[in-house]
Amino acid sequence: MNDQTQEFAGRTVLVTGATKGIGRATAGLLARRGASVLALGRSTDDLASLKAEIGCRPIAVDLGDLEATRAAARANLPFDLLVNCAGTTALDPFLDLSLDTFDRIMTVNAKAPIVLAQAYARDRIAAKRPGSIVNVSSDASFLGVADHAAYCASKAALDAASRVMATELGPHGIRVNCVNPNITLTDMARKAWSDPARSEPRLRRIAIGRFLEPVEVAEAVVFLLSDRASAITGATYRVDGGFAIS
């Protein structure tokens, strides 16, 4: 037993993107530490498998539909904590990037987290209850990654919005932080970084010599969500294996 064994007992946490990658690892970690997990995702099959695994309450919604996202958030209030983990990308050279692709990625990666955070924060403020939001961003928000113009822009927008959230919601006792991982071996990342010619130069800059595992990022998410991080807000918390130091 350690101090974190049941630190989320009695708390309900909404996790988006909960069926895959970092989101699934985060949902599992929270459940093991006592949380009741509201798992939001698109795939009913994946949600069913997650429910069988951790006993979550599944919420099927496409974050590309902002009205449906807002309705899902309101229908499942109140919840104590929020993790915005869902994300999408597309590999397009800048000159070939369509505005439709740009808008879709911005909607899922930046607008939907704002919609969810608004619904959550309004409810917490009305109830005079503190809270914590963790937005899963990316170190791509600091970089100019080739073929990722829309993705980099969306994550930079999420970081900037999160800083404003932290400023405005802090007086109400609501902390807001971002976790900014380096390449993490999710299905999406395996697709984007499968070519050794592309991945090896990046690996050479990572001090630990490898890409990250989803659970390693999930640990950072859960820490920032928890009361152990009670003095941390407005952070862009890099989990990058030392990439930024080289």
What's a concise summary of this model?
The protein contains eight helices and seven strands; from the N terminus they run E-H-E-H-E-H-E-H-E-H-E-H-H-H-E. By secondary structure, it is an alpha/beta fold.
The CATH superfamily name is NAD(P)-binding Rossmann-like Domain
Estimated helix fraction: 40-55%
Average per-residue pLDDT, rounded, comes to 95
Poorly predicted segments: none
Q: Shape from CA axes?
A: globular
SSE string = EHEHEHEHEHEHHHE
Largest sheet: 7 strands, parallel
Question: Could you tell me the number of beta strands?
Answer: 7
Q: What is the level-2 CATH architecture name?
A: 3-Layer(aba) Sandwich
Whole-number radius of gyration?
17 Å
Report the total helices. Answer: 8
Calculate the terminal CA-CA distance, rounded to whole Å. Answer: 37 Å
In CATH, the topology is named Rossmann fold
| Side-by-side strand order of the widest sheet | 3-2-1-4-5-6-7
Class from helix and strand fractions: alpha/beta
Q: For the record, what CATH class applies?
A: Alpha Beta
Q: List the domain count as a whole number.
A: 1
**Strand residue content:** 15-25%
Report what the structure shows.
- With 246 residues, the protein is of the alpha/beta class.
- It has a single domain, classed as NAD(P)-binding Rossmann-like Domain (Rossmann fold).
- Helix content is 45%, strand content 15%.
- The chain is built from eight helices and seven strands.
- The model has no long low-confidence stretch (mean pLDDT 95).
